[in-house]
Amino acid sequence: SRFAHLPNASPGNMRIEALRGPIQTLTSTLVRLVTNYKNGEVPRNDDVLTAYAQLRELHGAFSEITEEHNLQFAASVAEAERVIDRMITTFMLSVVVAGIVALLASVASAYAITKPLESLVLVARSLAKNDYSQRATEISRDEVGELGLVMNTMADHMEHYTSELEPTIAE
Question: Fewer CB atoms near the end CB (10 Å): N or C, the chain?
């Protein structure tokens, strides 16, 4: 605005400053009327009407300034509400994106855990059916991978002992 470079110089403040003269005029008129009344003089109707007209004029000017300030305040509140709405929308969008990322990470994690376990289940089922040729192929560097190595070793031993015992049993 054109008053932005002046300290506390909003248009409303400039209008209030412009009323300083009329306020001083009204004050002088009222002081003169009160002083005359104290001195026993009856105020003239013209002087009372003049003071009343000055007072009404100031009241109207202050009402306009107050209305202007109310409108500025309402505009500021509306802008603050828009900013808060944008912040809420951004926050909610962030929560949704974080939820989607967490869901995808959970699915990937679950797949990474269950895929080797499914392989071990297949090997265990084959061993239960006396098929010792199946081996765990999904060997990772964790507990599941260690279990896969142990199952492979067990299958090797069972296959070896079974192949040694079959000729003995056949005789």
Answer: C
